[in-house]
Fold this protein.
Amino acid sequence: MNKQGALILIISVLAVPAMAQQQGKFGLYGEVNLFAGGASEKSSFNTEGEAVITDYNAPGQREESTVFFPVWDLNFRIPRTNSELYFKSDLVGMASDFYMQAGYRHYLVDGSSVAIGVVPGVLEKETWQDPFALNTERQETKQTVRGLVFNFDNILGSTMGLELAAGERTVEEELSGESVVENISLLNREGSLYYAAVGQGIPPIAGVGLDWKVHYLIADADGAAMRGEQLGLMAEFSWQVNRHIFVLGGNYATHSFDEPHPVFNEIREDTSTGVSVRYVYAAPYNWHNVTLFASGGWDSRASNIDFYDKEQILTTLGMQYQF
């Protein structure tokens, strides 16, 4: 089940990063987050939904499920150096889905840091071999994103950050449109990905803080109808009262494609919107390394081609442990 839209809103900027608190230490440090909750998704591309569809214009069946997953950020500061190795999972960035990244980070004298990482693509996402097959059971396959990521954080000692990434998307058995159109190469989802993002975490003033990020993604797919670009904005406002933190987040993105879709005979254009709310309780029972939280998120994609419309709702309870 593809829940990345709501998950991105819920998980992003969860709490003060462990890295910011532990820069002066050597050895292993980081954070681990555990999430559990319920999810609801309505989409024609949900592999946990209907395998057989009879109408492209009919909305996908809503599917309910429970979720349980970890998110982690582990770092090993190399003794007597300003460098460290890291291994983390995330939901934002080039993959636009849950992924793992491992790499090397170096701290500069002005307080900034540069890092280079690898997204190995070991986490696979389920998708349909041919999403457009009508009146027959669609078969599942695996989709993978792998590539390289560069990060420049706390630029010149500021709270600004930059991320650049490049990689590729592969589909194990790509049969998009095989049962509908003659030239299935137009619908090939495989290809190169190029991503850039700039963001900032503005320190709280009178308990009120703001985190924002602008991101841009080019999907240079092998299929001309699948090539396109996405431009989006994410923002979160937080309000802290003693140990209690209240967070309101939102995102907006547009996604345009280059060539007409051979099944629907028009160029696809999408608009994605989402909102999230989160309550965070820091240091319960004076456990200073522990944070508890409750979250809810809604995410929607509206397309000029009804077949691509999607809606997601996710609620979670969770815990973060920093060490």
User: Anything to note?
Assistant: Residues 44 and 59 are 7 Å apart (CA to CA). The two ends are 31 Å apart (CA to CA). The chain is about 5% helix and 55% strand. The helical segments are 4-11, 18-22.
